[in-house]
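hey so u asked for the seq, here:
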Amino acid sequence: MVDEREPSGTLPPFWHGWQVGERVVVRYRLEAGGVSDALGELVRVDESGVEVATRHGLVAVEAGDIALGKRVPPAPPRRVRG
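ran it, structure tokens below
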């Protein structure tokens, strides 16, 4: 068994295991209160937080604002209306 704890004895944040290019959803706290979700391709992950390319643009989420998150399957193919 491998101990993945950081030198401080705490486990690293869950998003540190994510890889750029993966599809993720991140629930984050808003400054004005409440929460929002960012769903899309992970373009940055580091000690300061994550950045997700969503359909509406890039969303940068600071580490302290991340409430939940997970990897998600690829988006389904778009249907062609005809």
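Residues 18-71 form a domain with the SH3 type barrels. fold (CATH 2.30.30.100). The chain has no helices and five strands.
lmk if thats what u needed
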